[in-house]
Amino acid sequence: MQNYCKTIGALAAASALVAGTASAEIEYEIHTGYTSQYIFRGQDAGDDLVEVGVDAAYELNGLSLSAGAWYGSFDTAAPGQVDADELDLYAEVAKDFGFVNAAIGYIYYDNLRALATPGAPDQQEVYFSVGHEFLGFETSLTYFWDVEGDNNGYTEAFFGKKFELSPCLVLNTGVTAAYLWEEHDFAHVTARVALDWTFTETATLSPFVAHSWGLGNKGGLNYDNELVGGALLSVKF
Q1: Domains in the chain, ordered, with CATH?
Q2: What are the tens digits of pLDDT across the range 171-219?
Q3: N or C: the chain end with fewer CB closer than 10 Å?
Q4: Residue 154: φ, ψ to 5°
Q5: Reported pTM
């Protein structure tokens, strides 16, 4: 729930199965942050995004299960409307097969105050993702299938790497390239750099900067070049 280019990913589940019992330890995370612009999949949705969210994850019989909610408030870029609110609900089931990590997830977008016009319809998506870590690089490919609405067959390829600068500082880098299957063309490329500062055992502050390069008008949607910055604070317990 993620500011510059919101993509949905599960928390890494930290599980503890007690011998002779079926209990599992659930890991929770709460997060909040500010971003200068709300860039959703390469499109400028508005300015001054303030966000908050909560996630929960656990492992059961070899499956990683996660769910959460994300809320964002921002000044919309659409004419005639000053601000907007959005609530996203999501869930995911993932399994690590060793050679690949596969996941299936669901996202519900509730436009509490719509981006363009009041009363705009809510949307739903189901997504399918595969990922693998290769030589320290994180890679993944995710296809989002629209249940309600039309996302033009939106698909994301991700490539990233983390660099440990100290026991409490990690430089987190990543590049996302998006493709629209219905348009048979690329939509945008977004690069992000964050400095993750874990200042307690459970709390992390992540100032970041990101740049999205739009690759033209696709499916009636405008993808521009955008530079944004902000910071996220997350706490696990």
Answers
A1: 27-236 (2.40.160.40)
A2: 999 999 999 999 899 999 999 999 999 999 999 999 999 999 998 666 5
A3: C
A4: -60, 130
A5: 0.85
